Amino acid sequence: MIKLFGQSDKTYQSNGDLVIKALKAKVHKEDNGAFYLDLETGLEYVEELTEGRILVVNTPQGDQAFRVSNVKQTKHKLTTRARHVFYDSMNYLIRDSYVVDKDGNDALDHLNGATEPSSPFTTISDVTTINSFRCVRQSLYEALQTVVERWGGHLVMDNWTIGLRASIGQDNQVNVTYGKNLQDITAQYDWDDVVTKLLPTGYDGIMLDEVYLTSDIQYDLPYTKTVEFYQNLDQDEYRDESGNLDEEAWTAALKADLRQQATAYLQENSVPRVNYSLKANLEKITDVG
Questions:
Q1: Peptide bond into 117 cis (omega under 30)
Q2: Euclidean distance between CA atoms 87 and 33, whole angstroms
Q3: What angle do CA 74, 85, 128 make, to 5 degrees?
Q4: Cα(3)–Cα(238) distance, rounded to whole angstroms?
Q5: Residues 198 and 262 sit within 8 Å (Cβ to Cβ)
Q6: Residues 238-243: what's their mean pLDDT?
Q7: pLDDT exceeds cutoff 80 at 285
Q8: Residue 43: helix, strand or coil by DSSP?
Q9: Angle 95-98-103 (CA atoms, 0-180°, nearest 5)?
Q10: Residue 276 has what DSSP assignment?
């Protein structure tokens, strides 16, 4: 059943303003990626299916809310790709907020509480990784993408609750087997970001004393690149009582931070990224993780 609610509705226990009969409805969901509803329906809903209203659809994750956008009308039908209300996070700005040595739960709470206007979301996480992040003039959505990159985990979009989970899905005792339920498998190798010799630069063009970092992994072809890293160290921490900057300590801190970021980058990108796409018939099972 597809229920239509108003733009500002946050609870969906009722049948809403209207129950819509669909010609075609399909929910698309990716891990840490897109989550949307493709809907086709008749012209009788042209006055109701308008920009910004909310469609609530039953999914394997329960009833989920999707916001109507860019409705297309032809002679025979209406179509819309309605994105999950999670994407409202694009409309909430964080001017300047510094997450310092926080786990996933505290990081989400910190950023979610720093938006303009006030965020309508609640956040929760069981990720125990400790990390830091200076967020300057970014949307809440952009900040959340950085949190996923630095803290790890899986974004769980559950209506107005945003979760970051260490793992998703559960063991349903289902095997994907060739000749049984495996329909197709594709392996894609991405060498675009591979680097085995790196020249990192940081704040004000600073470089390491050794200039280059070299990976333990090498190939017949050279993969030498330069990457500029953002450094968010607080310069005031390196001033004396008179307010004068200790140039030597400041430079040493910048180089140490640059070396740490560059080493992690080199380790992550010294091998190609490999993505395996499986197509299998797994009925009523999602979030395989």
A1: yes
A2: 11
A3: 145
A4: 58
A5: yes
A6: 88
A7: no
A8: helix
A9: 130
A10: E
Where on the phi/psi map is residue 179: left (φ > 0), alpha (ψ -120 to 50), or beta? left
Token output for 226: 């330069």
Q: What percent of the chain has pLDDT over 70?
A: 95
Query: At 266, is the secondary structure helix, strand, or coil?
Result: helix
User: What distance in Å separates the CA atoms of residue 119 and residue 95, rounded to the nearest whole number?
Assistant: 13
**Helix, strand, or coil (residue 6):** coil
Report the C-alpha gap between 23 and 56 in whole angstroms: 16
Strand order from edge to edge, sheet including 197-201? 213-214, 197-201, 224-228
Beta bridge partners of 157: 162
Q: How many residues does the chain have?
A: 289
pLDDT of 121: 98
DSSP state of 270: S
Q: Are 185 and 278 in contact (CB under 8 A)?
A: yes
**How many alpha carbons lie under 13 Å from residue 206 in its C-beta half-sphere?**
19
How many whole angstroms separate alpha carbon 180 and alpha carbon 186?
17
The amino acid occupying position 92 is Y
Model confidence over 171-220: pLDDT tens digits?
A: 666 677 776 778 888 889 999 999 999 999 999 999 999 999 999 999 99
pLDDT digits (tens, 9 = 90+) for 143-162: 999 999 999 999 999 999 99
CB 88, CB 67: distance < 8 Å: yes
Task: Find all residues with CB under 8 Å of 252, minimum gap 6, and list them.
Answer: none
Structural contact between residues 271 and 193, judged by C-beta atoms closer than 8 angstroms = no
Whether residue 9 is predicted with pLDDT greater than 80 in this model: the reply is yes
d(CA 230, CA 232): 7
pLDDT: is 100 or 283 the higher one?
100
